[in-house]
């Protein structure tokens, strides 16, 4: 009996390998816009350098400015290294307590960046949540949240922050005031800042809540929290990303302002604002480097953040594509 071989199954066409997430990000419109924007690339490089030097401050600085035992008064008021009386390793000089200015700037930058980032993150979380609830539910819930926001907006930002800081500091025991100075600052900056995020998300949520895909999700009884998180929130992220980037620079400036006014970080844990406040007392006595170099560092950080925010606003604007 003749057995014939059954025909072989047709070979499956080879499918192209899916590009990795890193490849998709590198080839995205946002990455292309970033590479075509020299000022944004420069600002990102400066900000990355500042953040990296702040993180590595214990390894690259000649002293720990927070360790009072490491300060030596006979090394006080040394000018920068390029002047006649400059001394190694104090590249930018020292202050009246013998604290190395470069070390204080790097450690102070760490505090300013952490407080700025944490306050923006806290305000963003509160603003996103309240804005989604107000825009999706509407009614009396929307009225209550927005009226509270209107009250906060009717008062000066810095006044609210000073009141919160002063009340929190006065309510704490003396031993905890310096320990909790950073969390108090984060809370004080975040409280008046969440309103902008809430108003932005509320406007987008009100528009999205009236669209057909949201109405269809309601008809099939999808939970409200799932609709808000998985359907409405992704369509609100673009303006929020731009606002958060720009507010990061404002949060750093707010921390510096509060510390400059004496209601921020204590002198033994100086942020950039505290260093500027201390140095301002000796500006007209010839010790210019104590206030000039921390001020330059603060300007570099805020300018870099604002330049990145301006680029991100243009890159995510569909009318400019």
From TrEMBL:
<feature type="transmembrane region" description="Helical">
    <location>
        <begin position="179"/>
        <end position="197"/>
    </location>
</feature>
<dbReference type="InterPro" id="IPR000515">
    <property type="entry name" value="MetI-like"/>
</dbReference>
<keyword id="KW-0812">Transmembrane</keyword>
<feature type="transmembrane region" description="Helical">
    <location>
        <begin position="40"/>
        <end position="60"/>
    </location>
</feature>
<dbReference type="GO" id="GO:0005886">
    <property type="term" value="C:plasma membrane"/>
</dbReference>
<comment type="similarity">
    <text>Belongs to the binding-protein-dependent transport system permease family.</text>
</comment>
<feature type="transmembrane region" description="Helical">
    <location>
        <begin position="282"/>
        <end position="303"/>
    </location>
</feature>
<keyword id="KW-1003">Cell membrane</keyword>
<protein>
    <submittedName>
        <fullName>Peptide/nickel transport system permease protein</fullName>
    </submittedName>
</protein>
<feature type="transmembrane region" description="Helical">
    <location>
        <begin position="236"/>
        <end position="262"/>
    </location>
</feature>
<keyword id="KW-0472">Membrane</keyword>
<keyword id="KW-0813">Transport</keyword>
<feature type="compositionally biased region" description="Low complexity">
    <location>
        <begin position="1"/>
        <end position="20"/>
    </location>
</feature>
<dbReference type="Pfam" id="PF12911">
    <property type="entry name" value="OppC_N"/>
</dbReference>
<feature type="domain" description="ABC transmembrane type-1">
    <location>
        <begin position="109"/>
        <end position="309"/>
    </location>
</feature>
<dbReference type="GO" id="GO:0055085">
    <property type="term" value="P:transmembrane transport"/>
</dbReference>
<dbReference type="Pfam" id="PF00528">
    <property type="entry name" value="BPD_transp_1"/>
</dbReference>
<dbReference type="InterPro" id="IPR035906">
    <property type="entry name" value="MetI-like_sf"/>
</dbReference>
<feature type="transmembrane region" description="Helical">
    <location>
        <begin position="151"/>
        <end position="173"/>
    </location>
</feature>
<feature type="region of interest" description="Disordered">
    <location>
        <begin position="1"/>
        <end position="21"/>
    </location>
</feature>
<keyword id="KW-1133">Transmembrane helix</keyword>
<feature type="transmembrane region" description="Helical">
    <location>
        <begin position="111"/>
        <end position="139"/>
    </location>
</feature>
<dbReference type="InterPro" id="IPR050366">
    <property type="entry name" value="BP-dependent_transpt_permease"/>
</dbReference>
<dbReference type="InterPro" id="IPR025966">
    <property type="entry name" value="OppC_N"/>
</dbReference>
């Amino acid at each position: 009996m003749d057995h014939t071989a059954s025909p072989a199954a047709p070979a499956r066409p080879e499918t192209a390998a899916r590009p990795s997430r890193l490849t998709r990000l590198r080839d995205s419109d946002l990455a292309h816009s970033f590479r075509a924007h020299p000022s944004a690339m420069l600002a990102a490089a400066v900000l990355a350098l500042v953040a990296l030097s702040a993180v590595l401050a214990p390894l690259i600085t000649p002293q720990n400015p927070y360790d009072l035992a490491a300060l030596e008064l006979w090394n006080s008021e040394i000018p920068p290294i390029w002047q006649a009386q400059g001394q190694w390793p104090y590249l930018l000089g020292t202050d009246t307590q013998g604290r190395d200015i470069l070390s204080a700037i790097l450690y102070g930058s760490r505090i300013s960046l952490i407080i700025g980032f944490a306050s923006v993150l806290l305000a963003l979380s509160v603003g996103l949540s309240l804005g989604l609830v107000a825009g999706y539910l509407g009614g009396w819930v929307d009225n209550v949240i927005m009226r509270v926001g209107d009250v906060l907006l009717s008062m000066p930002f810095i006044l609210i922050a000073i009141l919160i800081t002063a009340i929190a500091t006065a309510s704490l025991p003396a031993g905890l005031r310096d320990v909790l100075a950073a969390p108090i600052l984060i809370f004080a900056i975040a409280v008046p800042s969440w309103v902008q995020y809430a108003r932005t998300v509320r406007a987008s949520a009100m528009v999205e809540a009236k669209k057909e895909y949201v109405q269809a999700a309601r008809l099939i009884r999808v939970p409200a929290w799932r609709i808000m998180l998985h359907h409405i929130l992704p369509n609100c992220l673009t303006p929020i990303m731009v606002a958060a980037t720009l507010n990061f620079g404002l949060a750093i400036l707010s921390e510096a302002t509060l510390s400059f006014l004496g209601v921020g970080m204590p002198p033994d844990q100086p942020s950039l604002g505290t260093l500027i406040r201390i140095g301002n007392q000796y500006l007209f006595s010839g010790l210019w480097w104590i206030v000039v170099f921390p001020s330059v560092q603060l300007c570099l950080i805020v300018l870099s953040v604002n330049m990145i925010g301006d680029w991100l606003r243009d890159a995510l604007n569909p009318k400019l594509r």
